[in-house]
Write a structure and sequence with these properties.
It is built from 11 helices and 13 strands. The chain is of the alpha/beta class. The longest helix is centred in the last third of the chain and has 22 residues. The N and C termini lie far apart (45 Å).
Length: 324
């Protein structure tokens, strides 16, 4: 069986492709970016540059594959998704064309990477966040742009399963982080941005950083190894409905900064930017269903994952400085 990893040039897709290959699975890795821009390039995979927003690109990508993992999307951190809502929503074309191609090619199973951004903003106004359970997605009021694309794509997966018998699996990811992802340029998420800022502060001796918002907003962050493990477990399972895949270790942004300071061995002055995009006030994952259905939940501690992430990003900052 050949497994198609759509969006393999991205952060999560690259890690999933690596793990599948390590398990002896034949992988077709597809992304629209030139391969020199992929976060990871696995020489043993069938690497192709294709536009998956186009139906012909999807048919070529899917041909001969028994399983599809769809991570392809135009997205990034809060700064990106707040200012590129149309671009984020256009990712619905990718999932739609891939579903059609997968149905026509009689693919065995189709996995879609959704997001906790599908949950209503009204349930996320308190920093002392009540964990979000899967049923909380309705009545629908997802995050504007990116959240609506993900929720619509979830429904497409459901109806392709109901109408055409295509076995679909959907994970709602909660803030994935780790090495080998975006760490600068505007698409990076909060853990990577904080690691970069503190690594630069340490390297330059200017111990001050900007923090978006007031630092009191809360999130749970899932390390990439847990994300990959949960993805593969869910894809292999009989769980047809969307499932949270995320850590339930809630933390404030200020506490995350303190954690990275401890890892780096410095203290920084914090300049808060109240007008910067911060998203919802508080978000956490309710992992009751994943424990019940898969007998597993993400368990890598934030302190451990952030230490690995900071070390990698610190090395990238040093390498960039050396290049001038």
């Amino acid at each position: 069986m050949i497994a198609l990893v759509a969006g393999a040039g991205g952060f999560i897709g690259g890690h999933v492709a690596r793990t599948l290959l390590a398990h002896g699975v034949a992988v077709r890795a597809v992304d629209r970016k030139p391969v020199v821009q992929w976060h990871q390039l696995h020489r043993e995979a069938d690497n192709r540059v294709l536009d998956l927003a186009d139906s012909a690109g999807c048919r070529e990508a899917v041909a001969g594959c028994g399983r599809v993992y769809n991570f392809a999307a135009d997205m990034g951190g809060m700064g990106f998704i707040e200012s590129h809502k149309a671009a984020c929503m256009l990712s619905v074309l990718i999932n739609t064309h891939l579903l059609v191609a997968a149905r026509d090619a009689a693919v065995d199973r189709y996995f879609f990477a959704s997001s906790a951004c599908v949950y209503p903003s009204g349930r996320q106004r308190d920093a002392d966040a009540t964990a979000l359970a899967e049923a909380d997605a309705y009545p629908a009021d997802p995050e504007d742009g990116y959240g609506w694309e993900k929720l619509f794509s979830e429904r497409m997966c459901r109806h392709f399963r109901e109408d055409f018998g295509l076995a679909t699996r959907v994970a709602r990811y909660h803030n994935v982080y780790g090495p080998l992802g975006a760490w600068e340029g505007g698409r990076e998420k909060a853990p990577a941005a904080i690691c970069r800022k503190i690594a630069v502060a340490k390297a330059t001796g200017r111990h001050e950083i900007d923090i978006w918002g007031d630092g009191g907003q809360t999130r749970s962050f899932m390390y990439i190894d847990d994300c990959v493990a949960g993805t593969l477990r869910l894809a292999d399972s009989d769980v047809a409905e969307p499932l949270n895949v995320g850590s339930d270790e809630l933390v404030t942004v200020d506490a995350l900064v303190t954690l990275v300071e401890d890892i780096a061995g410095i203290r920084v002055e914090r300049r808060y930017l109240p007008d910067a995009p911060v998203g919802v006030r508080g978000r956490n994952s309710d992992n009751t269903m994943i424990r019940e259905r898969l007998g597993w939940s993400p368990g890598i501690r934030l302190a451990d994952g952030m230490e690995r992430t900071y070390r990698w990003i610190s090395d990238q900052v040093a390498a960039a400085a050396a290049r001038g």
